[in-house]
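Hypothesis: this fold can be encoded by more than one sequence.
Test: take the structure tokens below, design a sequence, compare later.
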């Protein structure tokens, strides 16, 4: 979540530079909101099941990149191209983040394929079984396998183990957030 907030700030800064629009509070807020938007299904799961600990059940419709294209197109028509870019880029950054490290990836090719893809690194806690195969690279998981994988290789304490323990993934999350905030404040000081 910290990385998503940082990525939303970065999306707003990039949008501001590319489209030569003011880096306003609204643009930054929009970047953060749109970067967090795909996790609305986690909130729905939390309200419905009183838990969001099952990762693969939280990556539903808002985590399907091709399904989000109409949203960006609608925003382009309603608010202009820089807002469409902000929405599309923010969503892309969130989905890319969700494809690296934690969870079972994203359905990048939906509706053409229901497979989930995870890239580069797959975080697995030391107290759980390790998924056989390569440790780094591209992982492809069948939708029908996710419940089995979650039960046998998932981490029921993923929130605590990812966000509240010191390891490379939590450090990267924190550095993205802090780096984005520092960049944002340095730009606000320049323009003030």
């Amino acid at each position: 979540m910290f990385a998503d907030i940082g990525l939303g700030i970065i999306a707003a800064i990039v949008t501001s530079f590319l489209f030569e629009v003011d880096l306003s509070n609204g643009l930054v807020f929009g970047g953060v909101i749109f970067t967090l938007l795909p996790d609305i299904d986690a909130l729905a799961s939390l309200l419905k099941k009183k838990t969001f600990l099952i990762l693969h059940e939280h990556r539903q419709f808002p985590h399907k990149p091709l399904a989000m294209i109409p949203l960006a197109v609608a925003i382009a028509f309603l608010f202009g191209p820089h807002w469409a870019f902000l929405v599309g880029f923010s969503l892309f950054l969130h989905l890319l983040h969700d494809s690296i490290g934690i969870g079972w990836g994203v359905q990048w090719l939906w509706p053409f394929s229901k497979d989930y893809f995870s890239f580069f690194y797959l975080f697995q806690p030391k107290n759980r079984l390790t998924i056989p195969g390569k440790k780094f690279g591209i992982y492809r998981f069948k939708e029908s396998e996710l419940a089995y994988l979650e039960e046998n290789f998932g981490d029921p304490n993923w929130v605590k183990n990812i966000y509240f323990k010191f390891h490379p993934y939590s450090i990267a999350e924190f550095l993205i957030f802090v780096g984005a905030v520092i960049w944002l404040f340095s730009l606000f000081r320049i323009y003030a």
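The chain has one domain: 2-191. The mean pLDDT is 81.
Hypothesis status: open.
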